[in-house]
TrEMBL record:
This is Glutamine synthetase/guanido kinase. One of its GO terms (biological process) is biogenic amine metabolic process. Residues 124-485 form the GS catalytic domain. Keywords: ATP-binding, Kinase, Ligase, Nucleotide-binding, Transferase. The lineage of its organism: Eukaryota, Fungi, Dikarya, Basidiomycota, Agaricomycotina. It holds the Pfam family Gln-synt_C. The keyword S-adenosyl-L-methionine does not apply. It comes from Neolentinus lepideus HHB14362 ss-1. Belongs to the glutamine synthetase family. SMART domains: Gln-synt_C. InterPro entries: Gln_synth/guanido_kin_cat_dom, Gln_synth_cat_dom. One of its GO terms (molecular function) is glutamine synthetase activity.
Length: 485
């Protein structure tokens, strides 16, 4: 099975690539995560495409999002190795043109060790390829979709700096989820997001207002996992770029305001068989009465493999939380719990938006649409890491034939969460989740999930984030203690 699905018109050979770029003078390339990249001359690009790739400074793995250098203990990029070049391998299947940048050709790259030519362990695209290759070895393909909620403001980068992020003006006032009226205001921006996405090779399933001042939600079409991860990271880039043209500043921050719902980044996942059918679906016979041997009523219309997959996610989700919820602010979204439609416990349930894992199956959808919605991530997630974590855990559950522990959320009582005897709570801070991921024996450290090298490197970047937070003095502290302490 292919690891990804090529963009329409993507070249399949070097000769096709040369023909494709015959009228261009430059090419834009980007690395994933916090999207970084550069323009290359066509000649330089073609030379790299005809060989193993080109050198790209490893400091991209040694910077945080504001270009502050991580601790030198990190494995991939540090002062000790002089921030040596990594090998950036161009993925021709990611070809697309940027419609708002004069249709300049665009490609994504993955990173290899320059000596061994093997993928480096912390390359985001490499991590998801690892999970997809594992599924392919079992004759399955990883399929996923993503939904983003994001606040939008009538601001610019300059006005943000001048206002010091205070008193920002939302794109529209009030709470107007699924409103048909609100998109009439700022209509060009609203429609540009949809239309330019399609031109950029990002298929959209739904696009609407969400509850909250100036909040939009966009659902990206179900695709092979690497393709949806590429589309998800590029969608943020697209929205921010369109916003610049229209005088709008979107934010994918998980919890911008304490008294309003946060921004989710829900992920839908399933496995597909070689003949294109859902591996999570029950047979036609089982549609009548449910699958014999199902753990409970909530799982009787999903396959046994799907139940193992679900058990795998629930078994390991707490050990990979930084992969789903990566930032200090991310946990503010979860701390509100079900009151803000954000899960804070290890729960599952049939068609339940109050659970961490929503089981979507017959009778509410046809068998072919059977899937799980992972409701833990916020819009600030790195989709490569989040998807690789989910599929790695799910496949681990299938391999180990893990059984579901605990009842579905509908059978839980309020005191079950309070006591923690029946329900396992998720770690609700970046510090605690990083400690859990990095501890000896963490499921994240298993080779089939992320492995020690990845955990030590990525965990080090999260410890850096925690350290910066501990040093910060917030407005809340000043307002509370400055005069009266």
């Amino acid at each position: 099975m292919p690891t990804t699905v090529a963009t329409e018109g993507a070249p399949t050979s070097f000769q096709e690539l040369e023909a494709l770029l015959q009228n261009d003078t430059k090419v834009k390339v980007a690395v994933d995560g916090v999207l970084r990249g550069k323009f290359m001359s066509k000649e330089k690009f073609l030379g790299a495409a005809s060989s193993d790739g080109f050198g790209f400074c490893s400091v991209t793995f040694g910077w945080d999002m504001h270009d502050q250098v991580y601790s030198p203990e990190l494995l991939i990029s540090n002062r000790a190795n002089g921030y040596k070049d990594l090998l950036a391998s161009i993925d021709l299947s990611t070809y697309r043109r940027i419609p708002w940048e004069n249709n300049v050709p665009f490609f994504l790259v993955s990173f290899l060790d320059p000596d061994t030519k093997e993928p480096i362990c912390v390359c985001p695209r490499g991590t998801i390829k690892k999970a997809m290759d594992k599924a392919a070895s079992l004759s399955w393909e990883c399929i996923a979709g993503a939904e983003f909620e994001y606040f939008n403001f009538k601001e610019t980068a300059d006005s943000l700096a001048q206002k010091k992020f205070h008193d920002l003006k939302p794109l529209t006032p009030g709470m107007h989820g699924y409103s048909l009226l609100r998109p009439q205001v700022n209509m060009e921006y609203f429609h540009d997001i949809f239309d330019e996405s399609l031109k950029f090779g990002i298929d959209i399933e739904g696009h609407h207002t969400e509850t909250g001042p100036g909040v939009l939600e966009t659902a990206l079409a179900y695709s092979p996992a690497l393709r949806i991860a590429d589309n998800a990271i590029l969608f943020k880039y697209l929205v921010k770029s369109i916003g610049m043209k229209r005088g709008v500043l979107p934010s994918f921050m998980a919890k911008p305001w304490g008294n309003l719902p946060g921004c989710s980044g829900h992920i839908h996942v399933s496995l597909r068989t070689k003949d294109g059918k859902s591996a999570f679906a029950v047979s036609d016979t089982e549609l009548k009465t449910g699958r014999e041997g199902a753990a409970n009523e909530d799982t009787k219309f999903i396959s046994q493999e799907a139940e193992y997959f679900l058990a795998g996610i629930l078994d390991g989700i707490s050990d990979v939380m930084p992969m789903l919820v990566p930032n200090i602010n991310s946990y503010k979204r979860l701390s509100g719990g079900e009151a803000f439609w954000a899960p804070n416990a290890v729960t599952y349930g049939y068609d339940s938006r109050g659970a961490s894992i929503r089981v979507i199956s017959p009778p509410s959808v046809p068998p072919s649409a059977t899937r799980f919605e992972i409701r833990i991530p916020g819009a600030d997630m790195n989709p490569y890491f989040a998807l690789s974590a989910i599929f790695s855990l799910g496949l681990r559950g299938i391999e180990k034939k893990l059984k579901l522990s605990g009842p579905p959320i509908a059978q839980l009582k309020p005191e079950d969460k309070a006591t923690g005897k029946v329900v396992k709570m998720l770690p609700l801070s970046l510090e605690s989740s990083t400690e859990m991921m990095m501890r000896p024996g963490s499921i994240a450290r298993e080779d089939s999930v992320f492995g020690n090298d990845f955990v030590d490197h990525f965990g080090g970047t999260r410890k850096h984030e925690v350290s910066l937070w501990k040093q910060a003095v917030t407005d809340w502290e000043v307002e509370r203690y400055f005069e009266l302490a």
